[in-house]
Write a structure and sequence with these properties.
Residues 1-43 are annotated as: Disordered. Residues 15-24 have a biased composition (Basic and acidic residues). The structure is a single chain. By secondary structure, this protein is an all-beta fold. 0% of the residues lie in helices and 17% in strands. It contains no helices and 4 strands. The protein has strands at 2-5, 10-13, 58-59, 65-66. The strands form 2 sheets. The chain has a two-stranded antiparallel ribbon. A two-stranded antiparallel sheet has the order 3-4. It starts with a strand and ends with a strand.
């Protein structure tokens, strides 16, 4: 779910059904993204992306990076 904060120009994305955990200073605690398999393949070598759930560049075992078109 993406929620827009009026006036701030910031968009927040997250699980609205889960309560936000906060640390002793009141900051929200971050958690890692789920490790879902990426189905991306390097268009030049056909090697699969070794990253799990991610945004941005894909990466294969050789370290090559690419973006989807």
């Amino acid at each position: 779910m993406v929620e827009s904060m009026a006036g701030s120009g910031v968009e927040w994305s997250g699980d609205s059904d889960r309560p936000v955990k906060r640390n002793e200073l009141g900051w929200p605690e971050l958690r890692s993204a789920p490790a879902e398999p990426c189905e991306g393949r390097n268009p030049m070598t056909e090697r699969v992306c070794r990253l799990g759930y991610h945004q941005g560049y894909h990466r294969d075992d050789t370290g090559a990076e690419w973006l989807d078109d």
